[in-house]
Design brief:
By secondary structure, the protein is of the alpha/beta class. It has 14 helices and 15 strands. 39% of the residues lie in helices and 22% in strands.
């Protein structure tokens, strides 16, 4: 891959950067677009020297922006000694090439920037493969940029004849690499599918966390699972999907998945590359849509996430809005909200402090009620310790000690957990009734 490694041009740390936010009629309704663009650049470790806003009614074919603005940018690049110019809008390969020629520095668009951030943050084997696949797909359309030797034909001993241009060689090598990565990902995906089928077979409830990047998904995941997934106050702090088994109050054993954060206009190559990871969202029994309640643009971000959820065909999964970070707001107490049918559709919590988590557990218990069963069990004297576990995991409707000193409990638990209880020594099923 040495032939095109220098074309990948990952953003270097601390490069002197100019950001150009282009406002078009299609994105004027996005009030936080410019701020988010700046935050993306900072998340990549760039040294942002200046950011400009350019308003246009339409995109120009040659530069995307007008030639007059290009001349202005050229002067800025020289004056500020800039290394990199990043545009908020997606540029075509020819526009990127034309801009680089005139500005005499590296040019990239928002898609390239997001890909670079993903390459910095991916840590698992699968995550790294997914990001590289997305990068190569993006790169394959931009091979001509920055090369001066692409028109030369190979020649010499053993290479006589029509030959192959350097561009054709690089395209072929990238196609081979994409094919190899796709095969390796397919194996990883099959392993993931086996785990998913096993959970379905065991009737184990699946809960997926989704939401805008930096909404607090990983913080909530860590609180519920007692895990130590990396969480930080930055965009795309974590990329790798993490799955844990948990014991939830009133619901019992379940599986919870933390997925990659969404962002407006998430690059299609990334959505395609992370398709298997996002499959956890589609297959979930409950989708927790995590929202930063303290974000002034939360309504727009909720809408953006719902668009992506629809794109990955997860919009049929029952969802609960989890309004997180209420500790950042004044005079707002934890609570839950019900719709006109009495269903909990929104919960207000703080994953950082744990305030309101009991409301979230209640919402999950009600949402998973279709996977619950009501049963009457008998626990012998020697196995009485199981009763305390059930108190922590399931809901006990009634309990008493019979004439022989055995506990008799009417409980509400998941089918999976009841099956697990009955496999324990000293537990006998008296009757079972599936919850409607």
């Amino acid at each position: 891959m040495e032939l095109f490694d220098k074309q990948k041009e990952a953003v270097g740390q601390g490069e002197r950067t100019l950001l150009v936010y282009v406002e078009l009629p299609t994105n004027r309704h996005i009030h936080n677009g410019r701020d988010e663009f700046l935050e993306l650049a900072k998340s990549s470790g760039l040294n942002v020297i200046k950011d400009l806003k350019v308003t246009r009614n339409n995109a120009k074919a040659k530069y995307f922006i007008g030639s007059g603005k290009v001349e202005e940018l050229t002067e800025l690049v020289k004056e500020l000694e800039l290394d990199l110019v990043i545009f908020s809008s997606e540029l075509s390969p020819s526009q990127e090439r034309n801009l680089e020629k005139d500005l005499e520095c590296q040019v990239m668009d928002r898609t390239g920037l997001i890909l670079d951030i993903f390459s910095l943050r991916a840590s698992s084997f699968e995550g790294k493969l997914q990001v590289e696949l997305a990068q190569l797909r993006h790169l394959s359309t931009r091979l001509v940029r920055g090369w001066t030797h692409l028109e030369r034909q190979k020649g010499g001993i053993g290479l006589r004849g029509p030959g192959e241009t350097q561009l054709e060689t690089d395209k072929r090598l990238i196609a081979v690499r994409i094919k190899n990565i796709s095969k390796r990902l397919e194996k990883v995906h099959k392993q993931r599918d086996l785990g998913r089928k096993s959970r379905l077979k065991n009737a184990l409830p699946m809960i997926a966390l989704a939401g805008y990047t930096n909404a607090g998904k990983s913080t909530l995941f860590n609180y519920i699972t007692k895990a130590e997934v990396f969480a930080n106050d930055q965009l795309f702090a974590t990329l790798d999907s993490t799955i844990r088994r948990v014991i939830l109050p009133a619901s019992g054993e379940a599986v919870i998945a933390d997925t990659v954060g969404f962002i407006q206009n998430l690059p299609h190559d990334l959505v395609a590359a992370f398709k298997s990871t996002l499959e956890e969202t589609r297959q979930a029994n409950v989708l927790l849509h995590i929202v930063d309640a303290a974000d002034e643009y939360k309504i727009e971000k909720i809408e953006q996430v719902q668009v992506i959820i629809s794109d990955i065909e997860a919009d049929k999964v029952p969802s609960i809005l989890v309004m997180n970070k209420i500790d950042c707001l004044d005079n707002l107490s934890p609570r839950l909200d019900r719709d006109e049918n009495g269903r909990i559709f929104r919960v207000w919590i703080s994953a950082h402090t744990g305030d309101g988590i009991e409301f979230l557990y209640q919402a999950l218990a009600e949402q998973l009620s279709g996977m619950m069963t009501r049963a009457k069990i008998q626990i012998d004297v020697k196995s009485a310790y199981i009763r305390s576990e059930i108190h922590n995991i399931g809901y006990i409707h009634n309990e008493k000690v019979d004439d022989f000193g055995q506990w008799v409990l009417e409980i509400n638990v998941t089918h999976h957990y009841l099956f697990k209880l009955l496999s324990l020594k000293g537990v006998t099923l008296l009757w079972e009734q599936k919850t409607q």
